[in-house]
């Protein structure tokens, strides 16, 4: 009889956002007269910018003509997009990344889940706590996290690096030596960032210990402070210890069209084995790349018009973040984030648990957010709100919250 991967059976409950969806659907069915404002999942609300739409239409027309039709995409992605990425995301910042170190995909979420395929199951991971749940969940599915300890709400073979108010929601270097270190800056869910000087310490630590950093830079477009790096490769020595994940979902609104990329420098090796070649093999065998039409849309983001238009969208969401951050602070909440990231992290009031506060907001204000405990043990007692709603809904949500505080 066939057998299943019983690591899946170790996962507690359902995926965080599935649980939220079920709760919201039940509330909506029971209260059809109460309009919900959703500031929970980090999905964008603005339409794709005009330059991207123009590129999509043009690519569709190409696919209708036998002379310009495209089939499977190249394994690493089309050179036109990888060249644009190398030039504008890296070389423009003084970082030399070659196009064969860039792998186009359907998003950073997929890559963050799939990257573990090229690492041994014996590796021990370290994660920020709290952090995006996909990192831990996908490692659990691979059998890398040990046993789930329900009482402690943590895995036995994971190094948790607490991100607390007293350390500005940024982790300290762990005393225990990990093999794989997951860092996400600007951070999801806390919205925190670290300086280039602080990030350099992580690069030095990884090189010293022989660890690899998996660096999620999906929100780099929202960085406003000059001392906050947009890429880990701005740090000296990062090419020998770091993989970087990027996304078009948040900077250009591609949540519904799906596009991202991973950078693996050729200098990054385990012994004599280059991880770049391993990921190239994995990419070519198990993924056909994002479609030509979507990659042409991605190329349009890097045009002069495209850059101006997506920056307007980022500014729109960051204005929402300011509305949320300042509105909640005025209402007496302890808040952070929302300066270099589209997320606001707040302390739940009156000793409420994060799920109690979720129910409280849903029932009393009809506003949906995300319980902090869903991002890790240190997220308990905190709550995330996203700035990706419309401006009108953002204003209305804050007024509703103020009225029940």
In terms of DSSP E residues, the strand content is: 15-25%
Widest sheet: strand ordering = 2-10-9-8-7-3-6
Largest sheet: 7 strands, mixed
Distance between the termini: 57 Å
Gyration radius, to the nearest Å?
A: 21 Å
What general form does the structure show?
globular
What's the overall average pLDDT, rounded? 95
Binned, the helix content reads: 25-40%
- Give the topology string: H per helix, E per strand: HEHHEHEHEEEEHEEEEEHHHEEHEEEH
Low-confidence stretches: none
Category from helices, strands and their pairing:
alpha/beta
Number of helices: 11
Question: How many DSSP E strands?
Answer: 17
Task: Please give a structural write-up.
This protein is an alpha/beta fold and 405 residues long. Helix content is 36%, strand content 15%. It contains eleven helices and 17 strands. The protein has a seven-stranded mixed sheet, sandwiched between helices. Strand 7 (180-184), helix 6 and strand 8 form a beta-alpha-beta unit. The protein is globular. The relative contact order is 0.17.
Please outline what is shown here.
Helices cover 36% and strands 15% of the residues. With 405 residues, the protein is α/β, with parallel strands linked by helices.
Write the layout of secondary structure elements.
Layout: H1 16-30, E1 37-38, H2 50-63, H3 79-90, E2 102-105, H4 108-114, E3 125-129, H5 134-142, E4 148-149, E5 154-155, E6 158-162, E7 180-184, H6 196-209, E8 212-216, E9 242-247, E10 260-263, E11 269-270, E12 273-274, H7 275-286, H8 292-301, H9 304-330, E13 335-337, E14 343-347, H10 354-365, E15 367-368, E16 370-371, E17 382-386, H11 391-404
